[in-house]
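Propose amino acids for all 263 sites.
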């Protein structure tokens, strides 16, 4: 069973001491390819370098998360454009809106989001999207650009059926994480998962975040890792009442096509 983790923060400091072992453990578990998330210029540079060091195994995204939108300027845009010319950098993002904490003012978030959507449209790259507590603004801005974009995936989707309908209407793909393994916080997502069209679904860990709550035995560390993606796949397959092998094969094909990954 082969899986692709479409969102893993492997440049995070928690992986500094054992990154090679984490990648090896992922491959051993069947997670044969990974897309490393860029969340600001520094992590986007590091993700691109990491992907370049593991050709055919790792790829990356380049973008500015809404938390860091206040710092976004023309220099950011220029450097992101340069990073995105690298064939191993396969999507613009993580970009979008996050009104839950408002680490950057909403106006700055919207401006940075628009700038990155413009960049994606001009380069023909898909977008790796973040949305939290900002659904209406996110939907409205994305609708303006969707026709010009190569594609978009709602990274770490946690919404319910109504939000899913809105994203499918925007022709988005849906990324599902271990949030689905939490019967308390993930109840809305668990309701939505069976409704995701098979060819729109992809899987991700968002490591080191979102350790699946129902892992048994429970790991000694709270750090999530790509090697736990098969656990997430089994949970998703169970909710969809389909064989896990079929789900794995389809989500792998979808990720290859969406990101243009090499075989």
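Proposal:
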């Amino acid at each position: 069973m082969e899986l692709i983790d479409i969102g893993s923060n492997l440049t995070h400091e928690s992986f500094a001491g054992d990154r090679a072992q984490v990648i090896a453990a992922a491959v051993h578990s069947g997670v044969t390819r990974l897309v490393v998330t860029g969340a600001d210029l520094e992590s986007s540079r590091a993700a691109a370098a990491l992907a370049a060091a593991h050709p055919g195994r790792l790829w990356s995204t380049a973008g500015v998360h809404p938390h860091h939108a206040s710092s976004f300027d023309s220099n950011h845009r220029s450097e992101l454009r340069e990073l995105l010319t690298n064939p191993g950098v396969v999507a613009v993002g993580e970009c979008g809106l996050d009104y839950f904490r408002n680490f950057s003012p909403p106006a700055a978030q919207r401006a940075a989001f628009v700038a990155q959507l413009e960049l994606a449209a001009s380069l023909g790259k898909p977008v790796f999207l973040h949305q939290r507590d900002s659904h209406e603004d996110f939907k409205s801005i994305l609708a303006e650009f969707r026709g010009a974009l190569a594609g978009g995936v709602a990274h770490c989707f946690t919404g319910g059926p109504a939000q899913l309908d809105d994203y499918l209407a925007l022709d988005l793909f849906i990324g599902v994480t271990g949030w689905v393994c939490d019967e308390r916080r993930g109840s809305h997502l668990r309701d939505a998962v069976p409704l995701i069209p098979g060819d729109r679904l992809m899987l991700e860990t968002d490591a080191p975040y979102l350790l699946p709550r129902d892992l048994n035995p429970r790991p000694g560390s709270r750090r999530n890792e790509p090697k736990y993606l098969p656990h997430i796949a089994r949970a998703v397959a169970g909710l969809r009442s389909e064989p896990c092998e079929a789900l794995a094969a389809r989500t792998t094909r979808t990720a290859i096509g969406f990101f243009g990954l090499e075989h």
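The CA atoms of residues 121 and 147 lie 9 Å apart. The chain has a mean pLDDT of 96.
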